[in-house]
């Protein structure tokens, strides 16, 4: 697995540790050796599946589509701007979440 894939997996998992409903974060390797991360955020499911081979462009496209759909479904649509939603100064935790989500959207929008 390439460094970029590892970085994105780390960001998705860290986002899950920050926002997942208690007891819902799970990371595992499926039978096909794909890494899967899932959680619920405010009761809404999030799932990300990562290919075992970073050169598998079909799986990378599918992963990006899945992550962008699920981010939007749980309430983090592009372009994400927490300040617009909150309208107040961000806490340290909110800034960290905002940064993680922004990093994911930057990756998702890359060709």
Tell me what the structure shows.
This protein has helices at residues 3-19, 57-73, 82-86, 92-109; strands at residues 26-29, 35-41, 44-50. The chain is of the alpha+beta class and 111 residues long. The protein has one domain. A three-stranded antiparallel beta sheet has the order 1-2-3. Strand 1 (26-29) and strand 2 (35-41) form a beta hairpin. Helix 1 (3-19) runs antiparallel to helix 4 (92-109) and helix 2 (57-73) runs antiparallel to helix 4. The longest helix has 18 residues, at 92-109. The model has no long low-confidence stretch (mean pLDDT 84).
Structural descriptors:
111 residues; alpha+beta; three-stranded antiparallel β-sheet; 51% helix
In brief:
With 111 residues, the chain is an alpha+beta fold.
Overall morphology: globular
The class by helix and strand makeup works out as alpha+beta
Number of domains: 1
Q: Order of strands across the biggest sheet?
A: 1-2-3
The span between the termini is: 19 Å
Largest sheet: 3 strands, antiparallel
> Which regions are unreliable across 5 or more consecutive residues at pLDDT < 50?
none
Number of helices: 4
Gyration radius, to the nearest Å?
Answer: 14 Å
Strand content bin: 15-25%
Following the backbone from N to C, one meets helices and strands in this order, namely HEEEHHH
Q: How many strand segments?
A: 3
Into which percent range does the helicity of residues fall? 40-55%
What's the average pLDDT? 84
């Amino acid at each position: 697995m390439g460094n970029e894939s590892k970085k994105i997996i780390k960001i998705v998992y860290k986002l899950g540790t920050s926002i997942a409903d208690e007891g819902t974060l799970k990371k595992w390797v499926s039978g096909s050796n794909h890494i899967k991360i899932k959680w619920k955020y405010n009761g809404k499911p999030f799932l990300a599946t990562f290919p075992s081979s970073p050169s598998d462009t079909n799986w990378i496209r599918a992963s990006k589509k899945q992550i962008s759909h699920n981010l939007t479904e749980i309430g983090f649509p592009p372009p994400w701007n927490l300040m617009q939603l909150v309208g107040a100064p961000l806490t340290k935790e909110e800034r960290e979440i905002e940064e993680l989500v922004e990093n994911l959207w930057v990756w998702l929008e890359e060709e």
